[in-house]
Specification:
- This protein has two domains: 99 residues, Translation factors (Elongation Factor Tu (Ef-tu), domain 3, Beta Barrel), CATH 2.40.30; 122 residues, Rossmann fold.
- The chain contains five helices and eleven strands.
- The strands form two sheets. A six-stranded antiparallel β-sheet has the order 4-3-6-1-2-5.
- The two termini are 36 Å apart.
Length: 241
């Protein structure tokens, strides 16, 4: 396993609770849209076993051509030890990244793509949208639906509808309205549905999509392959026999 040590080169306050940490690009480090990485602080590997309280899975919110690795996360006033350390870091501080992988690359199958997320989940989808806007080959259109009651919407420069490019962005502020919209989107029985959020959020979305006739192979989750059966099987039991 290769560990890349790199430095924070910029900290952006996206909203009062959300920050993006931009990291220098280490030589040889590559990734694709929809990637996550293990993000760790100094000392995480000092003992016989890794100190897991100093490590988190984080989505990368940038693309390689932006020449920085973006880590976007919510840090509330009451937060974990990891987030408290992260909040204290400054430009120039060193962090580690390793085990980088994409669970949700943009599928180019001449279908409509629907991005379903909650709050800071948009960080995972930002690179997919940028990749599509830069090259729309074999994607019919993209629709992003995000639930965020704060009204402090993330990445307004990216998540702004662009009808000429067949990209639409929609924000709602409550779950009832959100799931009503998901049901409308699921009228497209051939679409691809990407979901990012907590396990509870994933399960709720999958149940709604299943009830609308969407098949498990049409659903992309930001989860490792070995975690998928655990989430999908109870919901799509009949389809997966």
């Amino acid at each position: 396993m290769q560990i890349y040590w790199t430095k924070i080169n910029k900290i952006i306050e996206e909203t009062p609770e959300v920050k993006t940490y931009l990291l220098d690009l280490p030589e040889g480090f590559t990734w694709q849209e929809g990637s996550h990485t293990h993000f760790a602080f100094e000392g995480f590997n000092a003992g016989d076993k890794p100190n897991r309280s100093l490590i988190r899975h984080m989505s990368i919110s940038t693309l390689p051509h932006e020449n920085s690795i973006g880590i976007t996360t919510r840090i509330r006033e009451q937060c974990s030890e990891f987030k408290a350390i992260l909040r204290s870091l400054e430009v120039g501080n060193e962090v580690a990244i390793f085990k980088t992988h994409s669970n949700v690359p943009l599928k180019r199958e001449d279908k409509n793509v629907y991005l379903l997320s909650s709050g800071v989940g948009l960080a995972t989808f930002r690179p997919l949208v940028l990749d599509y806007l830069n090259r729309a080959d074999n994607v019919n259109q993209i629709h992003s639906l995000n639930i965020d009651s704060s009204k402090d919407f993330l990445f307004p420069d990216v998540f702004e509808s662009a009808p000429d490019k067949k990209f639409t962005s929609q924000f709602v502020d409550n779950r009832n309205e959100y799931y009503d919209e998901v049901k409308k989107l699921a009228a497209d029985k051939d679409g691809l549905f990407y979901i990012v959020g907590s396990d509870e959020f994933l399960v709720e979305n999958m149940e709604v999509l299943r009830d609308q006739g969407i098949k498990p192979e049409q659903i992309m989750l930001d989860k490792r392959e070995q975690q998928l059966p655990e989430l999908l099987s109870p919901i799509f039991a009949s389809e997966m026999k």
